[in-house]
Amino acid sequence: MISDNDRKTPVEIAVARHRRWWLAIVVLILLGLVYYLVFVNQYVVAFVSPKDHFMHGSIGSETATGPPYWVFKALPVMYSDKLGPEGWGRFGFLYEKPDDDLPIGVSRRVVSGVERVWLNCSVCHVGTYRLPGDPVRHLIPGAPSNNLRLQEFISFFIDVGRDPGFTADALIATIDSPKVGGDLNIFERLIYRYVVFPRVKSAFLDLGTQLDFVKRQEQWGPGRVDTFNPYKALQFNFPMDEAHISGAALNGSSDYPAIWRQRPREGMNLHWDGNNDSVAERNLSAALGAGVTPVTVDRASIARIEGWMWDLPSPPFPVADRIDQAKATEGKTLFLQYCADCHGFKDASGYSYDRQRFTRLGKTVPLAEIGTDVGRWTSYTENFAAEQNLLYAGYPWRFSRFHKTDGYANHPLDGIWARSPYLHNGSVPTLRDLLEPSARRPSVWSRGSDEFDLAKVGYRSDQSAGGDLFRYDTTRPGNANTGHEGYRYGTELPDAAKDALVEYMKTL
After folding, report:
1. Would the pLDDT of 285 be above 80?
2. Confidence of residue 65 (pLDDT cuts 50, 70, 90)
3. How deeply is 193 buried, as exposed, middle or buried, from its count of CB atoms within 10 A (0-12, 13-18, 19+)?
4. DSSP 466-484
5. Which of 70, 317, 333, 451 has the fewest Cβ atoms surrounding its Cβ within 10 A?
6. Measured at the alpha carbon of residue 382, what is the angle toward residues 381 and 388, in degrees to the nearest 5?
7. Which pTM value belongs to this model?
């Protein structure tokens, strides 16, 4: 029996009720905090150095596009028959050190409690070179990627999605294998079996549907990208079947650009066809190509990269004593006469980007005048530009500068030695070749070596050059090496004058 002494007084009952309310509120707050910390807030790896941030920092691509870390680690092991011992290196991914966990250009972000990985800016903007007789590979952050085989990388994921052998059992077993070291616990295995795997499989199959047209394209090869056709399909669901896109527009693969010295480029016509004159819009657009969306983009991270490349100096020629100074002096005069009005000029005070002095710098040259391959220009359409200008609607940074041009843009040539091969589609192996009329430029050559030709300036293009070589055929759609030739382009100069121009361009 409960005595009167055990019975709670009205005050005690009220206090107890009050405590229960407070306890409930505290529990709800804690649950909300846990939910926010685990399922809402995202976590990234921070880097002190701006260069390290560029190489490895997240720009927000993982949230919408990236697979879980353990899936990314497992795939090269599951498909070692296709990728071989190189793993992701088979597609030209680079590692700063052999034992690095992830390649350059692949970043991490924890999303909804799961660590995911995907691409950042450096995947397309780190170049390499080796000097003759020296096996050491040198990295150039900010240079065009000369190794990345992005089309093959895309095709690999499409093939994995369609592979009957890509199952939850196989994936989990590979993650738990000693080669990967995932060591998933029971709860994690359930998550991977019933949540992660179905989503990854579905994403790969969707990718195959959206980018099915890629199999109709000419091979991009190493160091080239079709910038806008995948963009049309993934961002805007443009129909890409044969009834909706011409053969010329389908094959617009081009080299990656360098990204140093962006401050003086503001206001110039950027991209190969000059379709935008805002560095900030160009950068946000390029980030979409790496997998971000207008919702997931990490603008603060991209702003930090922008700040780094705003004044990033172009790399000096790697062997200074291989520059013939007498010829370079002669070439400087010729460059001023033939090239400077379109490309700027360098003297003792540095590279001049003065568009008042060099009146064609940063402007486009009509196709009929420049005569280079039409594929890249054709692939960029007015309809696509209109769609791009709707991106980021509702934000102050909404796109507004994209437009269709009449040709290709004249760009500064700072660090031109590190931007081989040449022309927008990378169809000419060396600077010396570019000074020949197209009929005398190499018509079929090997692309993919990073051994540098110090005399002709560019990567070796002969079949005995080292590396995983790609046969570049200039007769294929999108690959023409025509244009940028004739008197005003210096291709009618004597050989000695062309050699002098090359020596000078080593100094840029």
Report:
1. yes
2. confident
3. middle
4. SSS-EEEETTSTT-----S
5. 333
6. 90
7. 0.90
